[in-house]
Amino acid sequence: EFIAAMTEKDLGLEVLADYLDDRIDEITVFKNCGSFVASDEERTPKDEEDESAQDQFEMPRGGVGLDEVSDRDWMELTWRLAHHHPDEFFHVFQILSGRARSVEADAPGNAAGGSAGTGDDEDGFAAALGGGKPARGPGGAQPPAEESAL
Questions:
Q1: 92 within 8 A of 15, measured Cβ to Cβ
Q2: Which of the two residues, 36 and 119, has the higher pLDDT score?
């Protein structure tokens, strides 16, 4: 299975975290409740310190089954990771949590400029979305504006 192959690579867990990066809120609910959407009775306030002090992951009882998340892309990956590779799931969750804390810590000081640790500026993605320095053609001229496919 590709998850096992990914976890064996040096940066495999980082790649999985990159893929799931936009879903930290849903993955946190899944980690705590076993479901991707928490009902009001499942939501209990937890100290962030308690969560960060955990050194292992144990799948909550109940929750969604594989048949409910099959072919739903990131949900199925998260489910399979948590159920078949719990240690790796926990490490990916720690990576995502660390990134989220870093972004939150950078948010008040974001007036200094730059991205909030997303790495967008490194690969020019921010420039492609209109952020950063605009692309220039030969002779310093700006290329004609293109319509987004989105």
A1: no
A2: 36
For the beta carbon of residue 79, count every other beta carbon within 10 angstroms.
Answer: 23
Q: pTM value?
A: 0.59
Question: What are the helix (H) ranges across 70-124?
Answer: 74-84, 86-106, 120-123
User: Is the CA virtual torsion 62, 67, 73, 77 positive or negative?
Assistant: positive
Q: What is the pLDDT of residues 29-50, one digit of tens each?
A: 999 888 888 765 544 544 444 4
DSSP 28: H
Higher pLDDT, 53 or 20: 20
Judge contact between 29 and 37, C-beta under 8 A.
Answer: yes
Q: How far apart are CA 63 and CA 84, in angstroms?
A: 15
Q: How many CA atoms lie less than 13 Å away from 74 in the CB half-sphere?
A: 15
- For tokens 């050194």, the residue is 55
